[in-house]
Amino acid sequence: MEPILKALRKEQYTTPTPIQSQAIPHALQGKDILGLAQTGTGKTAAFAIPVLQQLAAEPTSKGYRYTRALVLTPTRELAVQISESFASYGRFLGLKHEVIFGGVSQTQQTISLRDGVDVLIATPGRLLDLMNQGYVHLDYLQTFVLDEADRMLDMGFIHDVRKVVRALPKEKQTMLFSATMPKEIAQLASSLMKSPVRVEVTPVSSTAEKIDQAVYFVPKTNKNNLLLHLLNEEKIGRTLLFTRTKHGADKIAKHLKKANIKADAIHGDKSQTARQNALTNFKSGKLKVLVATDIAARGIDVDSLEHVINYDLPDVAETYVHRIGRTGRAGASGKAISFCDGKEEMKNLRSINKLIGLKIPAVEHPFEV
After folding, report:
1. The CATH number of the domain covering residues in 205-356
2. Cα–Cα distance for residue pair 334/326, rounded to 1 Å
């Protein structure tokens, strides 16, 4: 569909990832999909693109918009990330999507649901609340996507998921994505789906083996000093640096500029133009350091990128693999450096070591405690 292709070209997506090329054709035929894929494999587009195409093919009602697609996801961050993807891929379609999650006042969310939405992205608890209060109606639902099903289980949301499922129409297309397939998720999948097409991509951990990895144990207060030391003394070249927050990204970019290092930050609060400019400058070599949050970094593909620095370790181990996978591509050598605050980030480091099946070697430096 041309409006979607136009949006993908704008995002500079040219080649589908394995999960996308496997899932999208079947999803467009209306088949149920059981996807085994981790974060960072491109699975959001694998369900978002077919959902948008199917909805756009049908006329939308002039008045109240009935929710025709529901995406259920475990965390607020993922919900926002998926919402941004729907906004990007569907920007030329005129469809309406909304995201709802707990932990914030529901007032604004209920206002935005007043005229109905075509696509609803939600976390289970808040969705149930709003369904019980009569703000969300799912009688006309055509497609149900359950994302990160195993994390739903880990986080204790499986009962809420089952309650949501019971309220959905029997006739619908279902797509379920999970990195692993524990017994409870397999049971849920078989109760939800009719002869699903199973799509599976190789575990991300294998990509980590090709990259030279190192961890620097450093207190949070010394991370800036260590960063300047590496960039100046160790003569580290063009670097993609990851932070956990938008605020953190801005702070680091400012700190680097002050030290006369050409740097810029990209994150969700920056305009598309600002993000594009920063990326173009980085690719052309005008910038030495591009500071990014995980959401903003999607779609960044830089040839011969030598270094990735994890200023903050991510909370999800798969995200680490996705981050470092941006270096060492197409046979080039790449190096991934991580800063780990021994007090706050050891848990994250242990999860990463477990996922990739090796212990990242620690490097001594002048800023250890």
Report:
1. 3.40.50.300
2. 9
